[in-house]
Amino acid sequence: MTMTAASSIADPAASATAYRLTGVTRTYRQRERTVTALAGIDLEIAAGDFVTIQGPTGGGKSTLLQMLGALDRPTSGSVRLGDLDLARASNLDLGRVRAAEIGFVFQGFNLIPTLTAAENVHMGLEPLGLDRDERRRRVTEALDRVGLADRHDHRPGELSGGQQQRVAIARAVAKHPRVLLADEPTGNLDEHMRDEILDVLDALNREGLTLVVVTHDSAVARRARRRLRLAKGTISDITRA
Ligand code: ADP
Ligand code: MG
């Protein structure tokens, strides 16, 4: 992503909103009980921000991330990503958004063990219908960005946990997504590897990528520009708490 000098003055993109959530609720029916996972969320996330979401288990973090990721729809309310309301979009549009606009990173890496790092990254590009040269270029660029230029041909089992998570990040950013969503991306990593991932996330954010990271780890949250807390389905801003 490049920005011209002129665009930094009055470009609306400079202060654009990535997400605008209004009155988002999500309830689940469990036998005769109704569980409220999200109890009415109003939230704006600015393009280019680095947001973390903390909070107790069961507080609704994964549910919220699924809304942001076009993986689930709210019971009520709207979830705008750019011009599209994910709550009302067709399944086809949601599929397109997931494939092209949203990068996902999970605690367990979710790499395919029989494929090399490059092949794993390549997989993430398949739905985009890019030509062969462009795909190759993107795979190389993405592995470079996460510092794995020399690990293209390694399989996950031949990589450290931190390196595996960097492959997963490369797979997510190769599509040039609008946002990167991560659910406990450092949850399976020791401190050293955690810092390695934090440095990669920091660098991607400085390049302009919007990050939303669910985490239990306050070392991760300290890197964020904006810290949110989600408990009992209700969100609060704890950036300066
Ligand atoms: P967190 O990620 O913060 O631990 P979740 O979003 O996973 O929280 O869960 C929020 C609440 O919604 C919890 O009470 C959980 O049990 C409930 N919940 C989440 N997913 C489902 C589901 N598929 N069916 C029923 N209840 C669910
Ligand atoms: Mg969770």
From TrEMBL:
Database matches in InterPro entries: AAA+_ATPase, ABC_transporter-like_ATP-bd, ABC_transporter-like_CS, ABC_transpr_LolD-like, MacB-like_ATP-bd, P-loop_NTPase
Pfam family, one: ABC_tran
Molecular-function annotations in GO: ATP binding
Domain ABC transporter: residue ranges: 19-241
CDD domains the record matches: ABC_MJ0796_LolCDE_FtsE
Keywords: ATP-binding, Nucleotide-binding, Transport
Protein name according to UniProt: ABC transporter ATP-binding protein
UniProt source species: Microbacterium mcarthurae
